[in-house]
Design goal:
The protein is of the alpha+beta class. It contains three helices and five strands. Strand 2 (37-41) and strand 3 form a beta hairpin.
């Protein structure tokens, strides 16, 4: 999380809205540990990583939808047995749970 704070601060100073995705749980093999974070601003700029690349695009999409108001904040899950997760590349055999919401501070 610390590595993305400068980007979040800069984006907020520039008047941008920001969504934050954090790994809140894992099962089995996972690309990142709980606490890993990624921020996405309303221009689609990204800082940080929650999966080492394998589901980043899907997470950016969810964060963007939250900022647009077309998706409610909450937990999203990607796992090997989930067809959607497999299609976006989570092939490590585990499951990751992410909480994604807009920052309000």
């Amino acid at each position: 999380m610390k590595e993305i704070l400068d980007d979040i601060d800069r984006w907020r100073r520039d008047g941008h809205r920001v969504a934050l995705a954090r790994v809140v749980g894992t099962e089995g093999s996972s690309p990142r540990e709980p606490g890993a974070a990624m921020a996405v601003n309303d221009l689609g700029e990204v800082a940080g990583s929650v999966s080492g690349g394998c589901v980043e695009g899907a997470v950016v999409g969810a964060a963007t939808e939250i900022l647009e108001g077309t998706r409610a904040p909450g937990v999203i899950t990607f796992g090997y047995s989930d067809d959607d997760a497999f299609s976006v590349g989570l092939t490590c055999g585990g499951t990751i749970h992410l909480f994604v919401s807009e920052l309000d501070w």
